[in-house]
Amino acid sequence: MRNRVVAAAGSAGFFVLAPGIVAGLIPWSLTGWDTEPIWLPLRVIGWVVFVAAVAVLISAFVRFVAEGSGTPAPVAPPERLVVGGFYRYVRNPMYLAVLSTIIGQALILGQWILIVYAVLVCAAFYAMVRWHEEPALRRSFGSQYEAYKAAVPGWLPRIRPWQPPKSA
Predict the structure, then answer these.
(1) Burial class of 151 by CB neighbour count within 10 A (0 to 12, 13 to 18, 19+)
(2) Residues 40, 29: Cα–Cα separation, whole Å
(3) What are the DSSP calls for 125-164, one per residue?
(4) N-terminal to C-terminal alpha carbon distance within the chain
(5) Cα–Cα dist 4/123, whole Å
(6) I want to staple 56 with a disulfide (CB 3.0 to 4.6 A). Which of 34, 79, 97, 130 is the partner?
């Protein structure tokens, strides 16, 4: 129980720091939350994307505590490989959710600078996953991670959820 309380506190803190800065503070600093004229259906789509992305992001953070007994923060990684929930469809739902919140904000506000920012964030996320996270997961979880990586795409979600093999 204590591990989960510590993991929940760590995850909450990391949520404020990482997505809070990348998808909150920086977009605000770029736009001041000022809106520009934009076709109303695009603004509505932006809200749908934004709300769905926030729900996925919160779900992914909760999953790290509930399933992994850890946090998404590199300083306090999960004890177990997190492969449930949205992770059954795509290996990087958290990054995709953060990118989607930025894109949603771009549509809500009519601020195209946020699309440019999202492209830069996407490149940074890809580099982080490729050169830090994947090697770290390989070291920590070995063949379990390799099997997961072979079955679940990194960036374009599967249509049907992956079913992890049954433990013996």
Answers:
(1) middle
(2) 24
(3) HHHHIIIIIHHHHHHHHHHHHHHHHHHS-SSS--SS---P
(4) 25
(5) 32
(6) 97
Arithmetic mean of pLDDT, 30-36: 97
Confidence band of 168 (pLDDT split at 50, 70, 90): very low
DSSP collapsed to 3 states, 21-73:
HHHHHHHHHHHCCCCCCCCHHHHHHHHHHHHHHHHHHHHHHHHHHHCCCCCCC
> Which contacts qualify for 156-160: CB closer than 8 Å, 24 or more apart?
156/90, 157/89, 157/90, 157/93, 157/96, 158/88, 158/89, 158/90
Residue 118 is predicted with a pLDDT of: 98
CB 62 within 8 A of CB 138: no
**How far is residue 84 CA from its own chain's centroid?**
14
67 within 8 A of 8, measured Cβ to Cβ: no
- The confidence score (pLDDT) of residue 114 equals 98
Q: What does the pLDDT average to over 12-27?
A: 93
Q: Which residues contact 139 (CB under 8 A, 6 or more apart)?
A: none
Measured between alpha carbons, how far is residue 17 from residues 66, 70, 81, 111 in Å?
20, 16, 23, 23
Closest CA relative to residue 98, chosen from 17, 40, 166: 17
